[in-house]
Design a protein that fits this description.
Elements (H helix, E strand, L loop, with lengths): L5 E6 L2 E6 L2 H11 L6 H6 L3 H18 L8 H10 L3 H11 L10
Antiparallel strand pairs: 1-2
Helix pairs in contact: 1-3, 3-4
Length: 107
């Protein structure tokens, strides 16, 4: 199995860990009632709901993997995106196109 990277992303004015691993996939299944294998197709649909859920699940995965509190909701992600509509592209480009930055608990 491939190593899962944790990326540091700035959203809502805060640097947060973002990780698309088992934790994020489990959250994706929980909030969408879809299978983890459907993630790429779901996000590829381009809907705002899909984009918000993708970012939210990655943030949950990052927080939980670092044993940080999940102190945000999908609605918070929506508000942050409303404040910065480019956040979806920024996070997607960072996660899909760049090596991970080291992240330690408590950063």
């Amino acid at each position: 199995m491939a190593k899962v990277d944790t990326h540091q992303v700035n959203i809502g004015g805060t640097d947060r860990p973002f990780r698309l691993g088992i934790i994020a996939l489990r959250e994706f299944e929980r909030i969408t009632d879809k299978r983890a294998a459907e993630l790429a197709e779901y996000v590829g649909s381009g809907t705002l709901e899909a984009q918000v859920n993708f970012i939210y699940c990655g943030l949950v995965g990052g927080a939980k993997s670092q044993r940080l509190p999940v102190d945000f909701t999908p609605d918070d992600v929506l508000i942050w995106a409303d404040d910065n509509p480019d956040v979806f592209a920024e996070i997607t480009n960072k996660v899909m196109g760049a090596p991970a930055e080291p992240v330690t608990a408590g950063e």
